[in-house]
Amino acid sequence: MTKISFIGGGNMARALIGGLQSNGYAMDAISVIEPDADKRQQLHAEYGVHVTEQLPSVSSADVIVLAVKPQQLRDLAIFLGSLLHEQLVISIAAGIRSQDLARWLGGYQAIVRVMPNTPAQIQAGISALYALPAVSAAQKEIADTIMQAAGKTVWLDAEQKMDAVTAISGSGPAYVFYFIEAMQQAALELGLSAEDARLLSLQTFAGATALAAQSSETPATLRAQVTSKGGTTERALLSMDTAGVKNAIIHAAHAAAARSAELGDQLGKE
Ligand SMILES: NC(=O)C1=CN([C@@H]2O[C@H](COP(=O)(O)OP(=O)(O)OC[C@H]3O[C@@H](n4cnc5c(N)ncnc54)[C@H](OP(=O)(O)O)[C@@H]3O)[C@@H](O)[C@H]2O)C=CC1
Ligand SMILES: O=C(O)[C@@H]1CCC=N1
User: Where does NADP(+) bind (predicted)?
Assistant: First the structure.
């Protein structure tokens, strides 16, 4: 079994480990390097993974997943470079370009950049992957297998597309949760119980998403099928259009993509 070492045991590392566990991955093949003792203890208790604060332990791993914040990556990578021999390095840090990471690692090129998302923890994630040219086909296969344990995978032909991916699927779960929060708040305001608010909003999301995925119709057509002339949906959509909801969502995704590029520009300069 490929030995995986996560550096950083925060939200996204947990989500990926959860996905690997659900997929039957041997938890004793996974170790997590994390400075916070409470997080280490929690990760060990919940998943049975090895935990340590000792960076040199990465030497025994086949794959190293860099799961620290983008702002923490450079200092870590400069230290990590001397510990690498033939491991595959997977970076999930938003914005950070592979060539900047390679430079911080002292020229190490076996790098796959990945943008996962948190539904990984129930194997419903999607990850976009991009490999530097030096990454072998076998290493790409390993990266793909690991990320498939957390959901679907898509390979990018140009790293530049990572900013867009980050804005859509990386940050995207937060947009959906935001919408669900609003639906649940409205349900409560309209007099439904918390339990019904939760059930009705979540099943509506799940059902509409499944229909959009399975149907050959566009989302616009499916939306029109809900919208009876002179009816309730029409009134709701008019209210959304007046408030500029669609434009706000599009604008938000552009803002996220711009922030990804900005992180790459700012942090990559160092
Ligand atoms: N959350 C998400 O939905 C997604 C996140 N990502 C990317 O994943 C990365 C991690 O994000 P997320 O999990 O949300 O962040 P978190 O802050 O939750 O996790 C990062 C963890 O790494 C720890 N850490 C910091 N420095 C080191 C170090 N030198 N060695 C080991 N551990 C260290 C942090 O400790 P401390 O808090 O003490 O600094 C923290 O516990 C980011 O780069 C982000 O861009 C990508 C896709 C989606
Ligand atoms: O918010 C962030 O920066 C990270 C990257 C994508 C999702 N979370």
Answer: 7-12, 67-70
66-124: pLDDT as tens digits: 999 999 999 999 999 999 999 999 999 999 999 999 999 999 999 999 999 999 999 99
Residue of 11, 38, 178 to mutate, ligand 1, most atoms within 8 A of C-beta: 11
Q: Contact, 8 vs 148, CB < 8 A? A: no
CA 237, distance to chain mean position in Å, is 30
pLDDT band with cut points at 50, 70 and 90 for residue 270 = confident
Domains of the chain: 4-158 (3.40.50.720), 172-259 (1.10.3730.10)
> Which DSSP symbol is given to 239?
H
Atom of ligand 1 nearest to the CA of 118: 3
Query: Which mutation among 69, 80, 83, 178 tests ligand 1's pocket best, with the greatest number of atoms within 8 A of CB?
Result: 69
38 torsion bin: left (phi>0), alpha (psi -120 to 50), beta (else) = alpha
Q: Which residues contact 243 (CB under 8 A, 6 or more apart)?
A: none
Distance from residue 40's CA to the centre of ligand 1 (Å): 13
Report which protein residue has its CA nearest ligand 1's atom 18.
10
Q: Could you tell me the two tokens for 247?
A: 């434009």
The tens digit of pLDDT for each residue in 243-253 reads 999 999 999 99
Kind and range of the H or E element at 12? helix 11-22
Tell me if 17 is assigned to a ligand binding site.
no
Query: Which ligand has the nearest atom to the CA of 125?
Result: 1
Residue 1: pLDDT over 90: no
What is the model's pTM? 0.96
